[in-house]
């Protein structure tokens, strides 16, 4: 058991019979009345973010989680198959637990978070950025740009993003997995 004084970003708790991860928190001491902690918590089963207020000092049940590095193997239907890097055991993860499935390609490494009490996966997070190849994009035309113009491009995973006009088919680019935006071109 912990109290609100033990809150920190990333702490996983059990609240209202659900598993939650604290995304952000703020301790508030108003001029009148008791102190409280305003939080944004993410449901580890659905991914939904909820704003919640806890009275300062209230007891909260913490949960133990374990991060396991796993390699993506293949997708079949709605299930993504991963292999644990240490035990070589295969794990099946539903698409709804993965933070950015459209940027996942064979061989990518992801962090799978397990609820240790039940030894079940509750979340799968890709790295903050991935390197992918452009499979298809129209050639950029010089001269018809006033500012930073973007054009659509299809990645090797099938995802579509906007890229600058100088990017061509076959180029490798770095993509931010949280926003899905182009970051930079990778020189070979």
Folded structure, characterized:
The chain is mainly β. The chain has 3 domains: 2-62, SH3 type barrels (Roll); 65-125, OB fold (Dihydrolipoamide Acetyltransferase, E2P); 129-186, Nucleic acid-binding proteins (OB fold (Dihydrolipoamide Acetyltransferase, E2P), Beta Barrel). The protein contains no helices and 16 strands. The protein has strands spanning 2-3, 12-15, 18-28, 36-43, 49-55, 59-62, 65-76, 79-84, 90-94, 109-115, 120-125, 129-137, 150-155, 160-164, 172-176, 182-186. The strands form 3 sheets. Strands 1-6-2-3-4-5 form a 6-stranded antiparallel β-sheet, with no helix packed on it. Strands 9-8-7-10-11 form a 5-stranded antiparallel β-sheet, with no helix packed on it. Strand 7 (65-76) and strand 8 form a beta hairpin. The radius of gyration is 21 Å and the shape is flat. It starts with a strand and ends with a strand. The relative contact order is 0.13.
Rough outline: flat
Averaging pLDDT over every residue, what do you get?
Answer: 87
If classified by CATH, what would the architecture of the largest domain be? Roll
Helix content: under 10%
- Count of DSSP H/I helices: 0
And the CATH topology of the largest domain? SH3 type barrels
- Helix-strand pattern: EEEEEEEEEEEEEEEE
Beta-strand share of residues? over 45%
Q: What is the terminal separation in angstroms?
A: 52 Å
- The total of beta strands comes to 16
The value of Rg in angstroms is 21 Å
Overall tally of domains:
3
| Biggest beta-sheet profile | 6 strands, antiparallel
CATH class of the largest domain, named: Mainly Beta
Q: What would you call the structural class?
A: mainly beta
């Amino acid at each position: 058991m912990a109290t609100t004084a033990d809150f920190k970003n990333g702490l996983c708790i059990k609240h209202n019979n659900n598993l939650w991860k604290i995304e952000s928190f703020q301790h508030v001491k108003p001029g009148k009345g008791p102190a409280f902690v305003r939080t944004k918590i993410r449901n580890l089963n659905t991914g939904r973010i909820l704003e919640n207020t806890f009275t300062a000092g209230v007891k909260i049940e913490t949960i133990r989680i374990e991060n396991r590095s796993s390699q993506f193997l293949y997708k079949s239907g709605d299930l993504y198959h991963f292999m644990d890097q240490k035990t070589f055991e295969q794990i099946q993860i539903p698409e709804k637990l993965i933070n950015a499935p459209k940027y996942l390609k064979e061989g990518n490494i992801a962090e799978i978070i397990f609820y240790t009490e039940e030894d079940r996966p509750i979340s799968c997070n890709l790295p903050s950025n991935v390197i992918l190849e452009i499979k298809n994009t129209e050639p950029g035309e010089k001269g018809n740009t006033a500012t930073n113009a973007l054009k659509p491009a299809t990645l090797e995973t099938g995802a579509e993003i906007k890229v600058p006009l100088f990017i061509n088919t076959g180029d490798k680019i770095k993509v931010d997995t949280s926003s899905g935006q182009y970051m930079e071109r990778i020189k070979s």
